[in-house]
Amino acid sequence: MTDNVHDILMRLKALSNPKAVSGMSGFGINPKDAYGISIPQLRKIAKGIGRDHELAKQLWGSRIHEARILASYIDEPMKVTEAQLEKWVKDFDSWDVCDQVCDLFEETPYAYKKATEWSSRKEEFVKRAAFALIAGLAVHDKKASDNQFEQFFPIIKHEATDDRNFVKKAVNWALRNIGKRNKRLNAKAIKLARGIHKMDSKTAKWIASDALRELTSQAIQKRLR
């Protein structure tokens, strides 16, 4: 291993951008323990490091915002354990860390199981992780059956009344991505969205209206045809 955790943390610290950190809150990102390093910069660093499971765990343990995102880029999905998923998800404290790390999580054998389990958890970012996983799988898991996504419909409907910003946006994201997967799932997602819209909840109505706007649009219907 050419890189060690101390050297990488020093490299990250050297890239600190206080102005970027001060602007993070405006995007709903938690600036705690952050250096303000951009995602393209982190991806470039990750490319130079390569895959390294043990190093990823050490970077996560640093608690540094960008180090944790970097950890998800260099970790090896097939070496990630279920215990590690549970440990990391409890540490989520910002939507950007949640969403970036879920790109790693969806490549593990536990993705569908955790999407279901975490959807009923109380913690805002754990619940967001469930729907970020669903949204990601809908785009990236080309081999999955329609049934694997239809199993999430009752979960989406059940959680559509959660008015916490980072949850409702993820529920909406999951519904839209499933509905863009193919013509059959599009029709089913539209039907689900119309059902959600009838619920006595301002949040549910927003989730449904926003999803329907995209899923029934000419652009999406043309692409699916």
Quickly describe the structure.
With 225 residues, the chain is mostly helical. It has 15 helices and no strands.
Domain count: 2
Q: What are the segments in which pLDDT stays under 50 over at least 5 consecutive residues? A: none
- For this structure, the CATH topology of the largest domain is Leucine-rich Repeat Variant
Q: What is the CATH architecture descriptor of the largest domain?
A: Alpha Horseshoe
Mean pLDDT: 96
Q: Taking Cα atoms only, what radius of gyration do you get, to the nearest Å?
A: 18 Å
- So how many helices? 15
Which structural class do you get from the secondary structure elements? mainly alpha
Percent of residues in helices comes to 55-70%
Strand content: under 5%
- Major sheet summary line: none
SSE run = HHHHHHHHHHHHHHH
By CATH reckoning, the class of the largest domain would read Mainly Alpha
Shape: globular
| Full CATH superfamily name of the largest domain | Leucine-rich Repeat Variant
Strand tally is: 0
End-to-end separation in angstroms reads 49 Å
Provide tags for this entry:
225 residues, 69% helix, mainly alpha, Leucine-rich Repeat Variant, 15 helices, 2 domains, single chain
Describe the structure.
- The chain folds into 2 domains: 1-93, no CATH class; 110-225, Leucine-rich Repeat Variant (Alpha Horseshoe).
- 69% of the residues lie in helices and 0% in strands.
- It has 15 helices and no strands.
- Helix 7 (95-105) packs across helix 9 and helix 12 (165-179) runs antiparallel to helix 13.
- The chain is globular.
- The relative contact order is 0.08.
